[in-house]
Design a protein that fits this description.
The protein is of the alpha+beta class. About 25% of the residues lie in helices and about 15% in strands.
């Protein structure tokens, strides 16, 4: 679907409200011609969290935490260890 939009004084183009708050990739393939794609990007310094081994460890840790609610710690008993 093609629509006609106007670039405002701040250089912004309005898209449908259904895209509000979404991340996009925008490539200018030649002067005045852009390709805009919806997507989700992971910051470079957080990519290690999505590596298979790390993600599996995190998933196991989260599952354990969901099965074991926090308990009050007996500090005297802990100090004896």
């Amino acid at each position: 679907m093609t629509t006609l939009e106007t670039i405002d004084a701040r250089g912004q183009i309005m898209l449908s409200k259904q895209y509000a708050g979404r991340q996009v990739s925008m490539a200018e393939i030649e002067p005045g011609v852009w390709i805009i794609k919806l997507g989700e990007w992971i910051p470079k310094n957080e990519r290690w969290l999505w590596e298979a081994e790390t993600k599996a460890k995190l998933d196991r840790a989260i599952a354990w935490a969901e099965e074991h609610p926090p308990e009050e710690t007996d500090l005297d008993l802990l100090a004896q260890r």
